[in-house]
Amino acid sequence: xxxxxxxxxxxxxxxxxxxxxxxxxxxxxxxxxxxxxxxxxxxxxxxxxxxxxxxxxxxxxxxxxxxxxxxxxxxxxxxxxxxxxxxxxxxxxxxxxxxxxxxxxxxxxxxxxxxxxxxxxxxxxxxxxxxxxxxxxxxxxxxxxxxxxxxxxxxxxxxxxxxxxxxxxxxxxxxxxxxxxxxxxxxxxxxxxxxxxxxxxxxxxxxxxxxxxxxxxxxxxxxxx
Length: 225
What we know:
The protein has 225 residues and is of the alpha/beta class. The chain folds into two domains: 120 residues, Response regulator (Rossmann fold); 97 residues, Arc Repressor Mutant, subunit A (Orthogonal Bundle). The strands form four sheets. The protein has a five-stranded parallel β-sheet with strand order 2-1-3-6-7, with helices on both faces. A four-stranded antiparallel β-sheet has the order 8-9-10-11, with helices on one face. A three-stranded antiparallel β-sheet has the order 12-14-13. The longest helix has 17 residues. The chain is elongated, with a radius of gyration of 18 Å.
């Protein structure tokens, strides 16, 4: 899952990024409005944590851009205690939640999980696709009641596929989802092929169905057809 932190306080931003990375998220940081708008335009995020007060403008502008793009990104507003009007404006623009500074990182993590679960999986703690079961809190995947031993990237990949069943997903979108803007420095998709190959092999250990289909020249599709 990809998270964008829009926060101009370096120490706070660094602590959030480090904490969320330990929780298994692909986490990126924008320290001003211009960079936040650029990143949210170029990349798709599962959730964005947006500070209202930025050095070059208001985080509300990021929220407005995201909604104009009809993005599915979840949005959590972060603001000072005396910024109730901004919170209300942000929620009216389409933000999903808000936190008041200072806040506990565990609470932020819980809010992020709740938003992603609500947006992608109808607030369910378990997602099922035929004989495949994903347990979101435990980050566990079972096929025919057998637990798969997945790496973090493989878990993120199967979750991404099951969130987009029967949809052709370009190779670049998969790479971007797993590595974020670090993908810009890569010169091939070899690592994507490697993760796909390993995930396909692990699923087929306990299933007779090949779910991951190659759409030549475009990308991949997760389907039982």
